[in-house]
Design a protein that fits this description.
The structure holds two protein chains of two kinds. Chain A is built from 14 helices and no strands. By secondary structure, chain A is mainly alpha-helical. By secondary structure, chain B is mostly helical. Chain B has ten helices and no strands. In chain B, α4 crosses α6 and α7 packs antiparallel against α8. Classes of the chains: A mainly alpha, B mainly alpha. Chains A and B meet through α2, α3, α5, α8 and α9 of A and α1, α2, α3, α4 and α5 of B.
Chain lengths: 348, 293
């Protein structure tokens, strides 16, 4: 270092010491690194038993099998078009429509079920005193009237921070309380909220494929198991995504409504929900797109979607299987573009 | 970064027409339900055999197997919980190895699929080349993720034979596609203020990108990669269903023999692992991007 003066070095040291660091993040990075090294070292022989030349031959055979069967005979690629059209009109279209139908039904179902859970799961609403404003019992356990509200810095909340206009003449006593009131246990904040969030975690922890596999053995071969499996898994994912949106939303309107005597359900339904509607739709379409992809493979369990057709043709008619794979892939790419377009419009 | 104290008054989508969104969703749902014959009676097991099976299955939930239900398992075999935990490690190994291939690939694809590093005044020829690279890498990513990892696995395992590497690659391909797409979006949406300052004092476009934009995107890139790691764990468990030795394979085998208690043992182990990783990820998110969790 030619131009490093002690002063400069000292300032660099100050900056270095002042940088934000977290042991948790550093530990996680180390652990991930360790896991990666372990994964590659412990995996044993990676490439299977067959010698290379044999595998190369298999690969070439496989590529040959992927060519459409009329083309294989005549070598004329124009014959592949009527062949593909036949496959499409025979079963392809039905399977495609069913795949999309399952995705739509599942994502709408899980949205319907997730919405009522959101006020419970939200860290702001799902507690005894949302926004520091007490809501609920106005007396403590001894039946004493509770004192006038104060915010954490000791100022009087009612007169300075939140105007209480007492709409509908509902409340005679002060509705705001000191947040540190020792008497009542915060059941919502300590039990109900974490329990709801854990329900989301559990729902999304189950892979939808395994869930569908189990449900099919209980309900038989029909479309319900697939719809239910996708709906349950997405219930958990939407719960988390929607929950994050609610937590990042601007809370001032909600605070006002609360101070004016709205309950949690009203605050969520009439104040927060309309404000975050666009962002909800963004995630809705994002998950819909994923559902289409997942509905395709769930058919591999034996229900007629594109995945089922792939399962039926694999091994004997690789050319047909490739057609179905490409059909599914093109639909998903179109769905992807559609949902990206809708989401971009919503973001504006 | 959003500031919650700043009022952001945004008009709702289709102003005043939110009800049409609801109505549309309701109609689509009913049409789908009619088309797929989703009747309430379909939610009940159709015959006494399946009723019986459902009863056995759910009652097994409270007593996961502490020992193999299959009597033919020799005493020298691992205890079932040991076997389950080993299965978890196989699952984890698979996901980690796949992610370690997917993330670098995605960084490269995501770089070419973003426009943040393009030189600003730029000749027509160069612009054409950049556009082509952009479109090609976007298409590659879109194609890679439009095919589910299970189907990639079917194709690749048939082409190359069953081997651990083939399974890892088939998991890595769609994940690289998804990661790359989101990486490029994160990079493109990153604030450009420091980049334009660097540009103004004469840095070259790629330097500007590497110093001014990329480092600021790193927390988001890490948290998103971690989220995909959670998905990779689930996907790697599911790959057990096409014959790769992860915990999904154990679940499938035990289920086929109607050993429901064993199924629940493996199931609880899998759930426990995924929940732990989920909470780990939540901790990371909280620390890395506190403003938008």
């Amino acid at each position: 270092m030619t131009h490093s003066s002690p002063d400069r070095q000292a300032r660099i040291d100050v900056l270095r010491r002042g940088r934000s660091r977290s042991r948790f993040v550093e530990g996680s990075a180390l652990l991930m690194l360790g896991l990666t090294v372990w994964a590659w070292l412990s995996a044993g022989k990676l490439t299977g038993r067959l010698p290379f030349a044999r595998r190369w031959q298999n690969f070439l055979n496989f590529l040959g099998d992927l060519t459409p069967s009329p083309v294989r005979k005549s070598g004329d690629w124009s014959e592949s078009i009527p062949w593909a059209w036949d496959l499409f009109t025979d079963k392809g279209f039905t399977a495609l429509a069913i795949t999309i139908g399952i995705a739509c039904a599942a994502i709408i179902l899980s949205t319907i079920f997730v919405l009522p859970f959101l006020p419970l799961a939200s860290r702001q609403l799902g507690r005894r005193d949302p926004f520091g404003i007490f809501s609920g019992k106005k007396t403590n356990q001894q039946g004493q009237k509770l004192a006038r509200p104060r915010s954490e810095d000791g100022r009087n909340l009612q007169s300075q921070d939140v105007p209480v206009t007492n709409i509908e003449g509902k409340f005679d006593e002060p509705t705001l309380l000191d947040r540190k009131s020792p008497s009542s246990f915060d059941f919502r904040g300590l039990i109900l909220g974490p329990a709801t969030r854990f329900l989301f975690v559990l729902a999304r922890a189950i892979p939808e494929y395994i869930l569908a596999f189990l449900l099919i053995s209980l309900l038989g071969l029909q479309f319900w198991p697939l719809v239910l499996a996708l709906a349950i898994h997405n219930f958990g994912i939407l719960g988390r995504l929607f929950g994050e949106v609610v937590e990042n939303a601007d809370t001032r309107a909600a605070e006002q409504a609360f101070a004016n005597g709205f309950g949690r359900k009203k605050v969520f339904g009439l104040v927060i929900f309309p404000a975050v509607f666009n962002r909800f739709l963004i995630y809705f379409f994002y998950r819909w797109e994923t559902c289409v992809k997942d509905a395709t493979v769930l058919g591999m369990l034996g229900v007629l979607t594109l995945g089922h057709l792939m399962m039926m043709t694999k091994g004997f008619f690789w050319d047909r299987m490739l057609f179905y794979v490409l059909l599914g892939s093109s639909v998903i790419m179109v769905g992807d573009l559609l949902s990206t377009w809708i989401r971009q419009r919503l973001r504006r | 970064m959003r500031d919650s104290k700043k009022i952001a008054v945004k008009p709702p989508i289709f102003p005043g027409r939110r009800r049409w969104v609801f109505l549309g969703a309701a109609i689509i749902f009913l049409v789908c339900a009619y088309f797929l014959k989703l009747t309430p009676s379909g939610l009940i097991p159709p015959d006494s055999l399946r009723w019986d099976r459902a009863g056995k299955f759910f009652s097994a939930a409270i007593s996961p197997a502490m020992d193999y239900q299959d009597d033919s398992v020799p005493d020298t075999a691992d205890h079932i919980w040991v076997k389950g935990v080993k299965g978890l490690f196989y699952t984890l190994r698979f996901a980690v190895a796949a992610m370690s291939m997917a993330v670098p690939t995605a960084l490269i694809l995501g770089f070419f699929g973003s426009s943040a590093w393009w030189p600003e005044p730029c000749g027509r020829g160069l612009k054409f080349v950049l556009r082509t690279v952009f479109v090609v890498s976007r298409f590659v990513m879109s194609f890679a993720r439009s095919i589910h990892e299970l189907i990639w696995a079917l194709l690749i395992l048939s082409a190359l034979g069953v081997s651990p590497l083939a399974g890892m690659v088939s998991l890595a391909i769609p994940f690289a596609g998804t990661l790359g797409k989101v990486f490029s979006e994160i990079i493109d949406e990153e604030a450009r203020d420091s980049a334009s300052a660097l540009k103004a004092i004469g840095h070259r476009p790629v330097q500007t990108f590497l110093v001014g934009i990329f480092p600021r995107a790193i927390p988001d890139l890490i948290t998103y990669s971690f989220y995909r790691f959670e998905c990779a764990l689930r996907a790697s468990a599911v790959l057990g269903f096409v014959g790769i030795e992860t915990i999904g394979l154990y679940i499938q085998l035990s289920h086929e023999e109607f050993y429901y208690h064993e199924v629940w043992t493996y199931f609880y182990l899998l759930l426990a692992m995924i929940v732990v990783v989920d909470l780990w990820g939540a901790g990371l998110r909280r620390r890395l991007n506190p403003t938008h969790a």
